[in-house]
Design goal:
Two copies of one chain form a homodimer. The first copy, chain A, is an alpha+beta fold and 152 residues long. In chain A, 45% of the residues lie in helices and 20% in strands. In chain A, the strands form two sheets. The first copy, chain A, has a three-stranded mixed sheet, covered by helices on one side. In chain A, strands 1-2 form a two-stranded antiparallel ribbon. In chain A, helix 2 crosses helix 4 and helix 3 packs across helix 4. Chain A is globular. The termini of chain A are far apart. At the A-B interface, helix 5 and strand 5 of A face helix 5 and strand 5 of B. The first copy, chain A, binds a DNA duplex (30 and 30 nucleotides) through helix 2 and helix 4.
Chain lengths: 152, 152
Amino acid sequence: MTIKNSNIEHFKDTLQAEGLRLTSQRIAILEDILASEEHRECDDILFSLRSNQISVSRATVYRTLEILEKGGFVRKMNIGDGRFRYENKLPKPHHDHMICLECGRIIEFVDQEIEARQVHLTKQHNFKLVRHIHQLFGICEDCQPAAANKGV
Amino acid sequence: MTIKNSNIEHFKDTLQAEGLRLTSQRIAILEDILASEEHRECDDILFSLRSNQISVSRATVYRTLEILEKGGFVRKMNIGDGRFRYENKLPKPHHDHMICLECGRIIEFVDQEIEARQVHLTKQHNFKLVRHIHQLFGICEDCQPAAANKGV
DNA sequence: TGCTTTATTGAGACTCAGTATCAATATAAA
DNA sequence: TTTATATTGATACTGAGTCTCAATAAAGCA
């Protein structure tokens, strides 16, 4: 069985466990996400599907993304510009993001010291840590020459 | 001169430097923010003003918050629920936030090790760090008994 | 002080990402 | 197949935040 098919099977099981149905739209959306390593917004996914002659409504993309997020297939991230981004979560261990303010490029990072400090700090406040957001905003290597000219 | 008046003077200077005018609405909004230690959304500030018989339009609150943010008087924060929060930034050193998923309570924290790691990590990627968001979501001490009953 | 210029205000129209509604359709189990 | 019901697509709606514009109010100047 291919990796792709095993993911579809896993999705099918997830749906069945919730009394949901496996539809061609849901499969197409999941396959599109599995085929991408990017951090995309809803319309990026919609247009990617359309470029492959797959017509799905925007509402269905949003609805499916919600199911995929709950099932652990995608990660929904808010980078503060008013639009959520979705990334294929399956092959990835936990990580946080550096976000370029110029080009929107996203660099993933993890740091065990930071992870450990978070646990330590929340314990100090008797706060039960569920999840975290750690985003470093700045200018990526490629954008620094252009940004310098603009006085950033 | 009182601390409050020195802040108003500072605000006046900031406005003048930009060719902006000192209006009663702007003063009222700044004073309301200076009097609060909370992380409030636009309407909280609007209703706080109204409870003091000060009538200002929502558009003016948004416009003034933008000026105050640029001038370093307030910090605008996105906690991921679709509404921005604004906090009085003047008396505060840099800090990040723990956010209770049950009651919305916000606990401030700083950790020099984390700050140092951020600098180290961005340097590794030749990324010019401008600002960061670090939010720890979970259940605060007060909400843990209730949350445990709901199976969180 | 009064005059003039122009920034500001308030009211409400507008934007836009995301959600809700609902009739038509498709899935899955019998 | 048939049947029950989940899903879809089209579109109306929501809500935070922004824009527009005529009326108003600062601030500099005579």
